[in-house]
């Protein structure tokens, strides 16, 4: 199959990103990479020396460690100044990373600890989203595990959070936790089945769903089910959600066989617990990509110029999936960073077009190095993922 010509914006992005580092061709002939130049998005110049690697499909990538010494960084959300807010699952802390730099990377500053977080198992302080009007309202939103439930709250940094949606089921496993504003300006949240598979097919329950709400926590207008925050159902445990234009995607933890990426459509049923992976039943939506669980178990998801990036825990890699103009998969997904940094959890598209990824080696299932957990910046220096 012939390769689709890169989208003009994607071509410009990749050219700019390749120029912002050094070419990997020069690196291969013995020249050092050096430090990346500052860019218009406000990235500071004093960053650790990057390293160059090549993924399974030939994708060239430059990786820089932005921060280290974190503890189970779970969610990443960018501020207008180019810095990012990062949640720590077990400590309940929100830290700000950058935009200021130090000789060792970006400056990490504790913003606050969220009172009421009850961290246990897979629960704790999970997703975070910055208001689209942050410059005016200074508001952020968090998803966290409390004493009796998972909940979504809004707050101004440094102030007490106000819960806006409560009663999301909690357990030691499958708490979901993804949180992001969609292109429609509404807040989306992903929930898990909390170990109770019956939740996922019951539209009256909040578990095993993707929810769509207003910034006040009310069911969004024109949701598919009357007076309900439910946007889609039949999920086992979704954590990562992202948009390529107006198309929404989510990454799903399977049970024993398949992990998935799904294109999310209003009111559709994604089959759990009746189906894991592609089932061929017209009642349920099949995933666009599926992997064996030992190659994936992916948590975070980001979209950059028709390319999806998902960060995997058990699989200890970053999968790249290139999309066609119609939102289907182009070529074969390719793996990056395989077993280089251990378990990977959060992934977010930065304002400058790079991708930030967090490790999760302190989550009780990894083997932490002295530097863990780390926050990485990835820059792609070649063509798209999985071209054929």
Automatic annotation (TrEMBL):
- According to UniProt, the name of this protein is PQQ-dependent sugar dehydrogenase
* Superkingdom of the source species: Bacteria
Ranges of compositional bias, category Pro residues: 39-48
Keywords assigned by UniProt, alphabetized: Signal
Matching InterPro entries, A to Z?
6-blade_b-propeller_TolB-like (IPR011042), Glc/Sorbosone_DH (IPR012938), Quinoprot_gluc/sorb_DH_b-prop (IPR011041)
- The stretch of residues making up the signal peptide is 1-27
The uppermost taxa in this organism's lineage are:
Bacteria, Bacillati, Actinomycetota, Actinomycetes, Micromonosporales
Q: Which residues form the Glucose/Sorbosone dehydrogenase domain?
A: 71-365
Asked whether the UniProt record includes RNA-binding among its keywords, one would answer no
> Region entry Disordered: which residue ranges?
33-56
């Amino acid at each position: 199959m012939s390769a689709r010509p890169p989208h003009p914006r994607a071509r410009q992005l990749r050219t700019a990103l390749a120029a912002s580092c050094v070419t990997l061709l020069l690196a291969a002939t013995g020249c050092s990479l050096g430090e990346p130049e500052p860019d218009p998005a406000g990235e500071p110049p004093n960053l650790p020396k990057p390293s160059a690697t090549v993924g399974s499909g030939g994708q060239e990538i430059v990786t820089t460690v932005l921060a280290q010494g974190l503890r189970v960084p779970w969610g990443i959300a960018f501020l207008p100044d180019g810095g990012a807010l990062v949640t720590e699952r077990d400590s309940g802390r929100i830290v700000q990373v950058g935009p200021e730099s130090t000789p060792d990377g970006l400056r990490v500053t504790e913003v606050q600890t969220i009172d009421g977080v009850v961290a246990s198992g897979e629960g704790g302080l999970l997703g975070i989203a910055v208001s689209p009007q942050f410059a005016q309202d200074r508001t952020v939103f968090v998803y966290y595990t409390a004493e009796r439930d998972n909940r979504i709250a809004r707050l101004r940094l440094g102030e007490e959070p106000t819960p806006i949606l409560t009663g999301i089921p909690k357990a030691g496993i499958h708490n979901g936790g993804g949180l992001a504003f969609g292109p429609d300006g509404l807040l989306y949240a992903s929930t898990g089945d909390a170990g109770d598979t019956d939740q996922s097919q019951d539209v009256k329950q909040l578990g095993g769903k993707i929810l769509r709400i207003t910034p006040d926590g009310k069911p969004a207008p024109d949701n598919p089910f009357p007076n309900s925050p439910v946007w889609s159902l039949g999920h086992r445990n979704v954590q990562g959600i992202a948009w390529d234009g107006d198309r929404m995607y989510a990454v799903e933890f399977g049970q024993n066989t398949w992990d998935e990426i799904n294109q999310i459509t209003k009111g559709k049923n994604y089959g759990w617990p009746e189906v894991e992976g592609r089932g061929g039943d017209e009642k349920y939506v099949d995933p666009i990509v599926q992997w064996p669980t030992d190659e994936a178990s992916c948590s975070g998801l980001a979209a950059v110029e028709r390319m999806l990036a998902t960060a995997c825990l058990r699989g200890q890699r970053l999968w790249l999936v290139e999309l066609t103009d119609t939102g289907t998969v182009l070529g074969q997904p390719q793996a990056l960073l395989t077993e280089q940094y251990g378990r990977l959890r959060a992934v977010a598209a930065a304002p400058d077009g790079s991708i930030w990824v967090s490790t999760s080696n302190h989550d009780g299932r990894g083997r932490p190095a002295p530097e863990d957990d780390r926050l990485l910046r990835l820059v792609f220096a070649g063509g798209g993922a999985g071209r054929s």
